[in-house]
Amino acid sequence: MTGVEIAVGYVCAYLVSKARRAGRQADAEVDRVVDSGMERVHDLVSGALGDDRALELAEEQAQSGEVSERTRRRLTDAVDEAAESDTVFADALREAIDQLQEAAEASGAVIATGDGIAIGGNVSLRAESGSAAALRMGDVSLGNPPVPGSHQT
After folding, report:
1. pLDDT tens for residues 34-69?
2. What are the DSSP calls for 44-66, one per residue?
3. Could you please report the per-residue DSSP string of 103-142?
4. How far apart are CA 80 and CA 86, in angstroms?
5. Residue 113: which of 7, 26, 3 has the closest Cα?
6. Using an 8 Å Cβ cutoff, are 117 and 135 in contact?
């Protein structure tokens, strides 16, 4: 099913957000709309998966502030399987994701999960004259690569 990774991202973001707030009520309308949408996606997924271990692990890990990539993959597989075997669930999940994304876009909210970086509004990133530009990248070398084992920068 297209969008399962998005659904899992929203479920994990919802769980982490819920754990961080621990009873604190959102104070802005945008937060309420987005939270409501993420809660709907979570409720659909948890209803379809029941006591699936992948969802339990995601809930446990969310308490520490991050859901591991392995757990996300397990949860993605579980949601994918549920969507393949239940078209009513798949349709409801797709609709909930679409509504959540529309609400987030309309409010200007941006959401990133895991190691993602979210930037709202217009972004321009460019590199000129042999330079490099990136939001996130590992070791970067311009020109000739360093000799293996050397400590050149």
Report:
1. 778 888 888 999 999 999 999 999 989 888 878 899
2. HHHHHHTT-HHHHHHHHHHTTT-
3. HHHHHT-----TT-----S-------TT----SS-S----
4. 10
5. 7
6. yes
